[in-house]
Amino acid sequence: MKYINTLREGENIREIYFCKNCQSAVTKNGKEYLRVTVGDKTGNLDGMIWDPSDGGIENFEKNDYIEIAAEVRNFNGALQLNIKRVRKLRDGEYDPAEYMPVSRYTIDEMFAELMGYIGEINEPHLQRLLLDLFENDRAFVSEFKKSSAAKSVHHGFMGGLLEHTLAVTRMCRFLADSYIYLNRDLLVCAAICHDIGKVKELTAFPENDYSDSGQLIGHIVLGYEMVSQLGAKQEDFPPKLLRELLHCILAHHGELEFGSPKKPALAEAIALSFADNTDAKLETMREAQENTAVMENGWLGFNKYLDSNIRKTSQPEE
Amino acid sequence: MKYINTLREGENIREIYFCKNCQSAVTKNGKEYLRVTVGDKTGNLDGMIWDPSDGGIENFEKNDYIEIAAEVRNFNGALQLNIKRVRKLRDGEYDPAEYMPVSRYTIDEMFAELMGYIGEINEPHLQRLLLDLFENDRAFVSEFKKSSAAKSVHHGFMGGLLEHTLAVTRMCRFLADSYIYLNRDLLVCAAICHDIGKVKELTAFPENDYSDSGQLIGHIVLGYEMVSQLGAKQEDFPPKLLRELLHCILAHHGELEFGSPKKPALAEAIALSFADNTDAKLETMREAQENTAVMENGWLGFNKYLDSNIRKTSQPEE
Amino acid sequence: MKYINTLREGENIREIYFCKNCQSAVTKNGKEYLRVTVGDKTGNLDGMIWDPSDGGIENFEKNDYIEIAAEVRNFNGALQLNIKRVRKLRDGEYDPAEYMPVSRYTIDEMFAELMGYIGEINEPHLQRLLLDLFENDRAFVSEFKKSSAAKSVHHGFMGGLLEHTLAVTRMCRFLADSYIYLNRDLLVCAAICHDIGKVKELTAFPENDYSDSGQLIGHIVLGYEMVSQLGAKQEDFPPKLLRELLHCILAHHGELEFGSPKKPALAEAIALSFADNTDAKLETMREAQENTAVMENGWLGFNKYLDSNIRKTSQPEE
Amino acid sequence: MKYINTLREGENIREIYFCKNCQSAVTKNGKEYLRVTVGDKTGNLDGMIWDPSDGGIENFEKNDYIEIAAEVRNFNGALQLNIKRVRKLRDGEYDPAEYMPVSRYTIDEMFAELMGYIGEINEPHLQRLLLDLFENDRAFVSEFKKSSAAKSVHHGFMGGLLEHTLAVTRMCRFLADSYIYLNRDLLVCAAICHDIGKVKELTAFPENDYSDSGQLIGHIVLGYEMVSQLGAKQEDFPPKLLRELLHCILAHHGELEFGSPKKPALAEAIALSFADNTDAKLETMREAQENTAVMENGWLGFNKYLDSNIRKTSQPEE
Amino acid sequence: MKYINTLREGENIREIYFCKNCQSAVTKNGKEYLRVTVGDKTGNLDGMIWDPSDGGIENFEKNDYIEIAAEVRNFNGALQLNIKRVRKLRDGEYDPAEYMPVSRYTIDEMFAELMGYIGEINEPHLQRLLLDLFENDRAFVSEFKKSSAAKSVHHGFMGGLLEHTLAVTRMCRFLADSYIYLNRDLLVCAAICHDIGKVKELTAFPENDYSDSGQLIGHIVLGYEMVSQLGAKQEDFPPKLLRELLHCILAHHGELEFGSPKKPALAEAIALSFADNTDAKLETMREAQENTAVMENGWLGFNKYLDSNIRKTSQPEE
Amino acid sequence: MKYINTLREGENIREIYFCKNCQSAVTKNGKEYLRVTVGDKTGNLDGMIWDPSDGGIENFEKNDYIEIAAEVRNFNGALQLNIKRVRKLRDGEYDPAEYMPVSRYTIDEMFAELMGYIGEINEPHLQRLLLDLFENDRAFVSEFKKSSAAKSVHHGFMGGLLEHTLAVTRMCRFLADSYIYLNRDLLVCAAICHDIGKVKELTAFPENDYSDSGQLIGHIVLGYEMVSQLGAKQEDFPPKLLRELLHCILAHHGELEFGSPKKPALAEAIALSFADNTDAKLETMREAQENTAVMENGWLGFNKYLDSNIRKTSQPEE
Question: Which of D133, A178, A158, F195 has the alpha carbon at shortest distance from E163?
Fold first, then answer.
């Protein structure tokens, strides 16, 4: 496949790209044409379809995968596609991973590890609640595996939600080992479902944007409600334990001003909020080091989320 | 009835009071006795039962209403009851309004007015949701009518939740009249149910304290969940409208740092949060003027909730 | 009239516009020309006068209304006027409402309503103070009717100050009805004159920008001083009442960090600050819905003044 | 004079004290008596007048100076006066400096220095404005000389306002010498009148408490208004210069949250706000060192106004 | 040993306690006596030595260990010691652990574990720096082992600094395993020495209070300087690596307002600040659960450091 | 010399400029060329070297001073240099003051004044410490004299650090005269060395950017360490006095959130922090007035560092 960041002026290509945008426009002469933006995981490029009624141009819309035949041209110093033919693709004719950012890790391996942690839980109601969701709710599992953990900031890629959930869960297991007064089953269970509301907060890839629910309600309360309903399914779920689990979810951002309607009141809620924050910040730093151009002196500039100028650490051999 | 703030040293009384506390203790000589605190709406008084095993002392506990025979004595400069007899009362033998703070308004009249506003709502799903709760759920209605709107601060009395709900609803109706782009039915419905979570956040009178749910989850999310479940009962409830109603509830504190997990994103959520805040502050001021000793110069001192020194305004005739 | 947002390349026009800017410049060949920006209520457009000494070009300056003859041309992808003739207009030759944003409501009707509220005030000193200003001070009334309530943000149009004042006054009358311990005359009087300092803070339209007084002193203190002087004119004005009125004006922004030198200490000051804030926010939301392009999903993006992402509420029929 | 902090049990005294409080009470036997608090600059003491109708007890009130004959007794471990005779004094019969905290410096010398700085001002309008106040307004001068600069915090003593004004003026003269782009006359004039509103904000000694104006309006706006009126008396006062002077007064607290309705926008306003703050903090530190018990390790504990633990610096010889 | 919290009125005791305070006073009759406060790890008790010149009263001072013979009396409802004899003890005659709070863990075992982590470090300069301190500097090691990590708040006991250091180091090792882009040696080294400045910030037990250095400089900069000097001892220490280590120490409080002069700019500094904060908060919660009386409903009240109401989590069997 | 802001299209020049940047690039045809940015104190200009291998193009790098022969051309509306010849210069062939911003004052005169203040110090250890640095450490003195006090903001020019240090020292001397309880020698010494860490925080001109140490450690702690080492050189330096000096340096930003790890606890630290802040703000205002275009109404727009709209004050003659 010819990635967008390798195209050169003058080339004629036939490639599959993802259509990020498509708008109708009119030339000064009153002729209709289409402005299109296509993309792959390496970037985006604008293109023009000057004759949309041409038989070689199939109907397609924003968010479709399309195969195009086009010439790469230079317009006012920027490359542009002059698109001659468009074919709309069906699922299976393309590999989404070429078009969307994806996790470095294998999704199924990560999920298997997560299921292993569910298997370790001794408290039967907590384990049953998790199994009802992660084993029996196929629709949820399918969305959960593909979801990102954010629109941008950190873990903004397919599998990002699973990768983040796993990292937080591992850290909570470590904390339960270290601080033995913690209720391990409660903490691990809370870690596993702390961000499940994100499957509703964000739309699926390739869009990966805030849904109406996401903006009006938010993943904290959406996740609270999902867990509350799962708890209600078990008639004998100890009500105090369920409240504690729900509190951990509500309080996992740690501070009211970060969107938690309650500050952590239980040790497990404190532990979870630190694990969540630690993974978020360390992954943000990792992504910044990967994606940001390093300045001469090793500094990466100001990172808004970390609220600091940041730099790569020297490596042992340096 | 002889109110506690009128008792004088040397009196012998037979009166009904509410038992606020009751603890067993041991004298230096190893004899068991009971320390009791009784109260009515005018104040509290400590008392001693030196011979708990006496036949005239019925079994009773904290939060019981008891009829006592006692002598009022002076101990180290403070009045104290020497309790000779105790009879535990049953519901109906006393008038709770003598023991708890109550609204200045008649609860049934306030409730009737509220039901009138529900009757005005045109959007059928919103009206049905409110009727399911305020007409059909007798247990809820019974609690709602008696609940306060706070442990202290403002509206901390029986009927306070209803009185506050009514004031906010009236103000939202006024705003809907004034700003015609507002969705009147949505706004009035949100006003009526914005604080229903408080019936779960606070325990019933006479305790009127935060429940475990209240502290771990809070009335905002508890109310959200109640409305969400009521909405789910109507299969054809327009999902977008339900989300908007739920958002108004979540956002009604106006700011994240005041415990709303989302800032108001809809005009109705903004209107509701102002109506809620305006009533809270003006009622706080009213109660402060009623309860606080006025200093020589008319000032009432610093009010923590209003974050200002406050003073009574001069009256027209002054 | 041909509005600026309807002009097309190639047209020859003869229209009246408002001159927003006019600067002399020199071509590379050393020839003087004029760069002009003209505007109407639909937008602005740049233009060139290549021969300023031509007899058809009358003398004019920034902030004049001018009638121009010009050709609409395309320069580097943007439209531009090639101006051949300019005639400077006198008052009366144009309709300012075509060039400035104006209130949706009739100014005289709004003013009559406001005068009605002054008529309702029973306390004679307060009423006399208002009449001295709104009835007897013609210069003030003329400025007040035309003034905006802000440079931008909300009510940034002619009549905006009157429209805002009226909305706040109506809300304060409602609050005085609802909270009967409020001093109604004081509150309504304070509402009517809370923002009068804005006639000095902002320059008149078409400029509508902060004056030197506005930036150095601000409308809160300017309004305070105006009311203080009006009060001093009445020898028998009760001093305590005058202080209370002045306090309401000083405290109407509610918080020190919003520019009030005192926090509200009186119930009426609290009520006024909420009425002011509620109208400001609900009008901001209304204007945002009118002026902002709605995104696919109904959201309007982040609104800085409301400090939130905002969206239009679904309408009853949706 | 026998100071209150030197009285011993068993003494019989005849001394002049200031009456800080006087309240009527009733014994258990129904007999009326008076509870009195008297004070001097070393402290306060409670006393009882058991027979108020005795001919030796003249009528007197709170805030009177009284000569008393009394026995010093021990009641429950604390000293108390048993007052037998009371004579109410007239002005001149006592030395207020024995009863109120006073400046370490001679008031007339300080005032003469201040007048010298007024004499240095070259700009005629500014100088005339200051002379109108500090030379021609005898009532003001009399109050100004006796006023404190605060109820407590710093400079809370007679002459404190003058002492603080002088310190700020000296520092502003230094700054005008150092930063020659500053408008020296404007800055010195602003320094001299920056706090004149305090003569209205605080009541006179011995009360020295916030007045109604002080709480509702505050010294910043009160001072603004005094200067504005003084400026208006000079018909030819340059309006821009007057606005600048008024701005310096409004902005002299430096930040909105400290009660200035405007942030400093002029260099002179910045200079004044620093001079004001520097003197306030250094005087607070001086008073803390004088009045606070030094702990073993030299530390003085936490100072709320300085928001820090503070300690005395070691002296050169240490 | 008879602990202070077990003493009863009327007992005659001969026990060793720690003298927390000792002050000379004078009775009304002019006779000198001593007011003493003695303590052990269960609490404090006041005592009187009415005849300090008695031969049975050896010279002693605050912070001495003393053996006393005394009678336990009741004075105004509180127990008090009437001390007859005092003998000042020498080191070795008492067990400090009976008088000071100590870690639950064995200090030598903890220290051995810490040395093990130093042994794991591969980077030779970092390891040598740690060995210079933790192996070769006997005076430091002796202080480090006994020091607390705080005056109060959390880890305020002997061995607390070591216990906290160990917990942070373990967590950093876990993070280095989980986020492989972290420089493990740098992170573990920084963890081990992040709080070494506390041996200078706090005085030794039994005082355990802030030193003059502690208050004026603080443990962050004191620790920075210690590490900087250790680094300077190795001529070939890579300067960039040393700066990174020093940065981790400076930034380990995570935010400027918590006393770090720099925000974390390196991934290791972020990791360390989270590990430090997580241990501090989880240990605070543990101590609160151990030391605070649980209210009826399981809640422990408001915890200032955690800035939240807190409660014990229900245990698995509940 | 022909300054960059005077160059016109079409000129052929031979001038010495400072090379701010130099990057290799490739044309579409695959030919290598150099993009260069040159500057002097009046501004920067981009240039192209189309034939880098030409014999007339000597080797040079970023931060070199170069003499160029070039033609001034217009490219897309902006001037650009077409560079034909480049000669790299040696120190002495150019006058740095033409290329870097420099202080208005003579560096040697400023330094002499500073040395005079050192000469006035009576406390021998403090004076010796300063002489060790400002007299005996030639390398430091050379850097100190040339350093700026900031990358931008204020005093961002050669000699800026010295100019700022001098202004702060003068103000501290004034404060020591005014507040006689201050330890004058300590305060003046602290003023002189409060910012010496900036010689390490910022790289030398022409770069004048944050060094790695500057970003990771910061000038406050770097300066602390320098003074601490100087103090350690004097065996008999009174330790308490040294701690006080070091505290003044650490606390000179006044607030934790401005990067001081400790709040001022000593009067001298308070005095120094005000002097530092006052000079910083007044110099910022001076530079803003010099560098910012004044708007029609005299206003200079919003200044981020002063956090306010600012304006020039009217001058006496206005």
Answer: A178
